[in-house]
Amino acid sequence: MLLLALDTATPAVTVALHDGTDVIASSSQVDARRHGELLLPAVDRVLTEAGLKLDAVTGVVVGTGPGPYTGLRVGLMTADTFGLALGVPVHGVCTLDGLAYAADVESGPFVVATDARRKEVYWATYADSRTRLTDPAVDRPADIADRVAGLPAVGAGALLYPDTFPVAHEPENVSCLLYTSRQAVPAPPGRPGPQELQGGHPQVTESTTVVPRLREMRWWDIDPVLELERDLFPEDAWSRGMFWSELAHARGPGATRRYVVAQAADGRLVGYAGLASAGDLADVQTIAVSRDHQGTGLGGRLLTELLRAATAFECAEVMLECRVDNIPAQKLYARFGFEPIGFRRGYYQPGNVDALVMRLTDPSSSLNGVQGTEIHG
Fold this sequence. Notes:
alpha+beta; 7-stranded mixed sheet; globular
């Protein structure tokens, strides 16, 4: 048996191959506006990694949502076409059910919620990881607050509305529908375990096609982030107190910060980024990528996430500074529409290196920017 699994019901474009026992290859890329562009190349990558051809597939599994129609239809139509062309069955799976199963919550009831945009969530409640209690629905969080009060919550939608879902696990950035291994990622020393943080997300086999997942930065990420910070910026590394101060403004209805980390399949943090907003102006505070992940496109993904945050904060402009000698960074920012507007003399100390000030107007229009060369400064 060889199942080809697709899901485009969330901002992630996710593809995996399953041999009946385990996932043998997988790919996930987060870009809510490029499902049609990214899906078929992702299928080709996982087949190449597994050393197989499409005609070896004996069945297709596809996430059926709920999800935004523009992205959802890409996966559904592609799965249907593969089924007809190969003469194999196509099986639809509710995306919320896939997330509930992958979360592996030990005792219910609990709720799964994904982002439906327009200040709404797709949601359903579950007795356990295999038993759904309510039909999938779409509602404003305030309208269902009484029905989900006190329930553990799984999914990115829950994290967006902490007043309604106060007991929320970390959001997934790929569809957990595709992850069938139930072995949890081991937690680093001193850090809460995966059941507490992420609902026990199953481990993904590390491979060249498995990209790091992006998620919200939390307090337990500060120590590994500091290790990267000191490695990449030894002369002017941020302190622990600076990160604590930034994260203190990153949650709740009055949040003015957005910090994300990139986590590899083995649990390591391999990148992070942060943005601050004030009124209609946002400022890129930092973008950093570990040395072994530079050149993989991760810097562009992190910048894209910050531009999404700037758009959500309703900022009309985004500002940033970068070293005048960091040409790769300047090229990346230019691809996203940033333009140089001035200099800050001696901004980077010690070393007395000037900063190039760059500005982007209308960040929402740049979310389809080309993601290119990595940056680390």
